[in-house]
Amino acid sequence: MLSKKRVFVAGHKGMVGSAIVRKFRESGREDIVTRSRDELDLSDQAAVRRFFATESIDIVYLAAAKVGGIYANNQYPAEFIYQNLAIECNVIHEAHRSGVQQLLFLGSSCIYPRLAQQPIVEASLLQGYLEPTNEPYAIAKIAGIKLCESYSRQYGRDYRSVMPTNLYGPNDNFHPENSHVVPALIRRFHEAKACGASEVDVWGSGRPMREFLHVDDMADACIHVAGLARSIYESETQPLMSHINVGSGVDCTIRELAESIARVVGFTGRLVFDDSKPDGTPRKLLDVSLLRRLGWESQISLEDGLQSTYEWFVENIYLQEVASI
What we know:
- Helix content is 45%, strand content 15%.
- It is an alpha/beta fold.
- The protein has one domain: NAD(P)-binding Rossmann-like Domain (Rossmann fold, 3-Layer(aba) Sandwich), CATH 3.40.50.720.
- The strands form 3 sheets. Strands 1-2-3-4-8 form a 5-stranded parallel sheet, sandwiched between helices.
- Helix 1 crosses helix 7 (215-227) and helix 2 (45-55) packs parallel to helix 4.
């Protein structure tokens, strides 16, 4: 059924969107609809309305979002809540207005309470206080879940949501300040190795525990969830929740992650943990038993994923930066 449908991947130049497009094309599909930000500003309701009115879309993968690490979330809370709310409201509402029956919304595990019981089950949503460092972003993502739930309930749409754990991989943001922990550490360790530095600073105490998922696994999970029969999806996600966790089911400390990245990069100096910087949530591990019951689990190990991501960074980011100097 999916092979006969016209698919719009919103956010196709981002890490997750590009992985979804790549996964589709690996399977032989070439008719995926994409638009760059210059071609379609998803925060512009009129532009989004015109797009859906003319493109005859059957299913939407809503991977477009403003994302960033602890620093970016702390510095730009207004941008994080406004831009994500605008994108979600425009795409979901205009998809509905144009008759799009299927949509998959990509959220984030930060939707869950800061001190949720571990591993975190889907029913933990709205059961406690959010992590303050990314609360505006989390609230926007919760709104996206509820938009999908509401349009499905009121209008009979088949709008689903998946909540990924911490993602990494090709096309990640490797900005030295605004990136998430994996790309930030890959860049930091690589540059330290290149200049012969004896030590590298790592934000926080190193004690918090995090789960990581390679973006190619995430793309595969998205296509799997979107392809499930509606009766199967709804029988597993109703009535307690309307979303599905996506993760590896395995976590590690930030110290262990940093040591793994240092090993992959080949940095042999000292790691200095700066506990004056915020740690964020103490632990965040998703319960992925629901997704496993639905027939999917991750395939890419953290070590293998870090190795391939580092190689991608060197070839596509670092060497190009050096060449431009």
